[in-house]
Amino acid sequence: MGKKYMQNIVSRIKGMGILRRPVSLFTFSCIVSIGTLLLYNLPFFSYAADNTNESAGGKIFLMASLAVIMLALNFMMTYLTVFLMRTAGRLVLAILSIINATAVYFITTYSVIIDATTIGNVFNTRYSEASGFFSWPLWLSIAAFGVVPALYCLLRPVAVGKAKKMGAYCAGALGAVLVTALLNVSQTLWISQHDTELGGLLQPWSYLVNSVRLATTHHDEQAEEIRLPDGRITDNEKAVVVLVIGESARKANFQLYGYQRQNNPLLSRQEGLKVLQATSCATYTTAGTKAILEPLNSDELHELLPNYAFRTGVDVTWRTSNWGEPPIHIDEYLTNEALGEMFPGENIYHDEILLKGLRERITSSKKNKVLVVLHTSTSHGPNYADKYPKAFERYKPVARNVEEGEKNVATLVNAYDNTILYTDYLLDSLINMLRAMDDWKSAMIFISDHGESLGENRMFMHGLPMKLAPKVQYEIPFLVWTSENFRTCKPTADGREPAEGELPAVLEQHYIFHSVLNLLSIDSPAYNKDFDIFK
Length: 535
Ligand SMILES: [Zn+2]
Description:
The chain has 535 residues and is of the alpha/beta class. Helices cover 47% and strands 11% of the residues. The protein has 19 helices and 14 strands. The strands form four sheets. An eight-stranded mixed sheet has the order 7-6-8-4-9-12-5-13, sandwiched between helices. A hairpin with a 5-residue loop joins strand 10 (453-454) and strand 11 (460-461). The mean pLDDT is 90. Residues 247-248, 285, 288, 449-450 line the site of zinc ion (ZN). Zinc ion binds next to helix 13.
């Protein structure tokens, strides 16, 4: 009896033939389109609903209109992809499902918006750093919302049908889009006000459109840098400048800027340290680093500080545990891995490696002017707790990464504050090293590429477009120390327009280029005294 019952069920399932009997391409496209809306575009609708001033009725009409347009466009895209490319088209849909699931995971977990810079950051991120983002919740989410729909797209038998039918369905879908758009003409202004956010939340269009945008602009950025007019070194004094580029260091968490924790114990005792107010030009590494090194704010690529100083005859060395910098053309470019080979036994994942042998390197220089750039990575997420030695874990307990920290933001802030404590130690060591080099005039400048979000308004990390970014993502530390008898900073104009010879209350990253030219005694038509922090 039991056996017969089982056989009955098996034959019934076979009879349904869910995986054998093909559906029409129309049905298949409807299912994929509805699935795309429900699985990947709820953040889009939630943003739209939260940001419209319409009355309840108007809101429902707007949401319904957006849904109709999205369903019709996704339907058309699916239909055409499979009709024109058959199996290859299904493969495209499967890949899009997996990318969609990944994008939505990052949108909901880190409150990111997928625009051209986010895509650029994805392509620029090294695997070692990106692997910090991979975690079980991400894999599970990709499996459930990416792989399962992908298998459906690949395996569901479909009867493709005739070209005539395709024409009719696509014309119908296009008609629906046009009519709905016309009924909503009054929303044009609202859409243009929110285009960045709406576009960045719309899957799969956000990354498809932005990847194309990035590919077309990338070509120009690879162009050769615009050469600056020649400069010359005007004296023979021995002088060294150490420029430290911070990573994701935000002003709000520095004791020197009034943070309540004592996480700058060493620097706050350093005599002659200048604490300046500054903002970054962008919220991501490539743009922030470029702004620190270039002579003026520009979308174009001008000759950068290390390249220009090197060409003018300065001994330039670049040491990095980071990446994403614009093209550097100098003789000595050392990564933390390369330094690890020069100094075996050192931990190359903590930024102290960048200071190894530095004093000997400077004092053995055959030139009188030396520029050292240290591109650090100490406060880079999502794994803040991996960026400093155990001895610097003063604030506990710590979240191992941002995902863990989301559940308890205080533990994430603890880990982050430890990175600032470690930064305090590194900068203090540098200043002490320079101070001990009696026969050199010296300067240490620390400025961050951008800030960081640590859970305020459920935002984490950095990279939001400037017009949406919270202050913490662009208010950065800017610290300056110079040896005795060397240059001194101009006074800062507080609360009023700066007079001649004064600095504005808040500086930007382009002050670095001109200030360093001054320190290295480089006389150049490219130098602008208004962007020099020194007298
Ligand atoms: Zn950065």
